[in-house]
Amino acid sequence: MKFHTKKDRVLEDLRAQILRGEYPPGTRIITHRVAQEYGVSAIPVREALNQLEQEGLVQIIPHVGAVTTPLSARDLEELFEVRIALERLAVEKAVPRLTDADVAGLEAMARELEEAWAAGEDDEVLNRLNRAFHERLYQHSGNRRLQKLISDLWDYSTRYPPALSNGQPTTAEALHEHRLILAALKARDGEEAARLTVRHKERAAIHIIGSVQRHLNRLQDRQEESG
Q1: Domain 6-68 has CATH 3.10.520.10
Q2: Which of 71, 75, 64 is nearest to 29 (CA)?
Q3: Phi/psi of residue 40, each to 5°?
Q4: Whole-angstrom Cα distance, residue 200 to residue 196?
Q5: What is the pLDDT of residues 98-155, one digit of tens each?
Q6: Which CATH architecture has domain 73-218?
Q7: Does the reported pTM lie above 0.90?
Q8: Buried b (16+ CB within 10 A) or exposed e, 121-133
Q9: What are 67's strand-pairing partners?
Q10: Which of 40, 101, 156, 164 measures 20 to 30 Å from 20, CA to CA?
Q11: DSSP E strands, the chain
């Protein structure tokens, strides 16, 4: 990738590192260390951190500096609220444009995911295949701006627990929901496909938000015990 400015390079790398969990929630990002790592002055680093603050990935705290934003059930609720609305729209726009070959391709992707699950593949593989399935469908919406918004929000979601896991019974439910969505796509029933997608995403949201809230509750309990 070619970067136009020093800030762009630092921004892209820091964003990717935060989303991959290399800077866990609540971690301080020290400006001069990042500047030394990239061989730049503090200015492009500060510019990058300001951009990341706008994206909600860091908080800039007076007398402390930039800190990666903590996990928040409320943040996740807001994230899914927007994602579900956009993904519903993408499905509604995509279905009238689908060809038989398009649906066959989506079926093959769903089958690949099911086979990976049956083979006991790790969570990273399952979630990569799951995202690919949904994004392939959204590509048929013909609206690149809509696709980009969904992709950006999905990137941000990677800070939180994954939707699919071989250790969770909810994964089998998700794969069944894919089959229902595919049946609606075959019938070219855009309204039903959108309704099923919303239900699919809402169930995932409940599962992930619950997981985050339980994690936060455990942290609070530990803090109270140690205090």
Answers
A1: no
A2: 64
A3: -125, 170
A4: 6
A5: 999 999 999 999 999 999 999 999 999 999 999 999 999 999 999 999 999 999 999 9
A6: Up-down Bundle (1.20)
A7: no
A8: eebebbbebbbeb
A9: 28, 59
A10: 40
A11: 28-29, 58-61, 65-68
